[in-house]
Amino acid sequence: MKITDLLTKDTILLNLQSQSKEAVIDELIGKLNTAGKLNDKEAYKEAILARESQSTTGIGEGIAIPHAKTNAVSEPAIAFGRSTDGIDYESLDGQNAHLFFMIAAYEGANNDHLETLSRLSSFLMDPNFRSKLESARTEKEILDAIDVKEKEMEKDEAPTSSSSKRKILAVTACPTGIAHTYMAADALKAKAKEMDVHLKVETNGSSGIKNALTKEEIEEADAIIVAADKQVEMERFNGKHVIQVPVAQGIRKPQQLIQQALDQDAPIYRSNGDTTVDNKKSDSPGRSGFYKHLMSGVSNMLPFVVGGGILIAISFIFGINAADPKDPSYHPIAEALSTIGGGNAFALMIPVLAGFIAMSIADRPGFAPGMVGGFMAASGGAGFLGGLIAGFLAGYLVVGLKKLFSSLPQSLEGIKPVLLYPLFGILLTGLIMMFIVIEPVKALNDALTLWLKGMGTGNLVFLGLILGGMMAVDMGGPINKAAFTFGIAMIDAGNFAPHAAIMAGGMVPPLGLALSTTLFKKKYTKAEQEAGKTNYIMGASFITEGAIPFAAADPGRVIPAAVIGSAVAGALSMVFGIGLPAPHGGAFVIPIVNGNPLLYVLAILIGSIVTAFIAGMLKKEVQEDKKELAA
């Protein structure tokens, strides 16, 4: 499929009228919608903004490629827009963007569509091609330039190779897998050709792994560049020099990365967690710290908790005890929802937590021991805390086993992952959990549960005040995640009140600052006012990170305002006796809270108003700030 099958005259805007990032997104979405390419304009915009919240798609060199893959697209398409003056798109190089390609892919897009979109991404790395787009006077000239570029690529598909050249391998990957994955790949390939270096790139895109690296190629390679923003298979690179960077660096710094690989100025990757450069210790996936391992477990566990918690909450609509066949309020649908949510999804929560913590520490060999340890914690009553211990215990035990077995003959290498690691990992983890960990942790959990249940109203309000405030201190950082993790542990223990305070506190910073930009417009720049509109959605969706740009720009005023508002919301949630069985979902799960949903909304609104007014009063008018700067 040709790019011009997706980009047509009716999706081209030669003179964009927009002056801001959100405005240009709206203008391009409007063009796609008018051309009949979307079936839900607002849902598509939400998908675009969600992708932008991960990292900007303004890749530099005057280019921005906003993109999304969603069912809101009725027909795969590309919209092109051009701005002569340029628009501040928060690009990686800090410069204005002039050329905009908005990629609309639907969930069922086949590989042909996705490969066509990736081909466009690679074209944009050519400065001559960009120059033609900038000087084109008509839509036809735009399409003709793309046609010429496609014909040039067809003639130059085969990679050059020579036994005399140094051999470098690369892997590129981004969360969406539509643009950045392929742009990084093409930037590296183009620079390697210029430097006369043999380079093969594996892409982990939406259509799967392409150009996969073989075992023989890895063995022959001088070094490997991994430019990725998502997890890729690393154990295959054991013993090789590996450079690990974000995918954006593959686009922006290809020459630097290739030269670093040629100089072998990179750590030697060890799957047992040891990474060395000239006998000096360096960070590696196995030594990235407690927080990274914990978040790996929590993020993979979250879908089980969210899905299971919401199903349990829905079952309560039929009655608190409607899932019990012996209760007069029994209803078979309530029993089914409770069984699926609590008996199955929740049952997997702690094993998955432990399994992925262990896998983060020890790679794939840690997964099975972690899962088993987590299952033992869950079934033995050690709960969430027991699962955490099981995950870290299993992970570091397997790291130790890798070191212990490293001296075995090479002929036994193949049986380590299928026999030795699972056998001894599961055995040792299981024995320690059974005889040392489970009983004391179960006793601690029982004591904590009794303590929370025995708390008076004043103490509960204070707890809500602390938990709510913690959610706003670093807005998605370690303190925020510590409160969130505590809330999930309490849900597992059957105490839903703490997490209600936590979610209320997490929703307040973006909602409060959005409201502040609406009420105190003179205190915020145009860009901040536009960001405020997005924060209404992010706050309602319990995405605290939406407030980070405001906090980064003015931490001395914004953070105190956010913390105070969040603390108020958390305290009020406790006062109103709200319980939340689902750990995520924002406004979408408010109808299923335990208690009065309207009072929960009131707690969040009051906290947001407090944040809005404190921020509005503390901040100075933008014009005054400009005069001070000029002085």
TrEMBL record:
The chain crosses the membrane at residues 301-323, 343-362, 374-399, 419-438, 450-473, 500-520, 558-578, 598-618. Gene3D superfamilies: 3.40.50.2300, Mannitol-specific EII, Chain A. InterPro entries: Bacterial_PTS_Sugar_Transport (IPR050864), PTrfase/Anion_transptr (IPR016152), PTS_EIIA_type-2_dom (IPR002178), PTS_EIIB-like_sf (IPR036095), PTS_EIIB_2 (IPR013011), PTS_EIIB_2/3 (IPR003501), PTS_EIIC_2 (IPR013014), PTS_IIA_fruc (IPR004715). It is found in: Cell inner membrane. Keywords: Cell membrane, Membrane, Phosphoprotein, Phosphotransferase system, Sugar transport, Transferase, Transmembrane, Transmembrane helix, Transport. It comes from the Bacteria. This is PTS system fructose-specific IIC component.
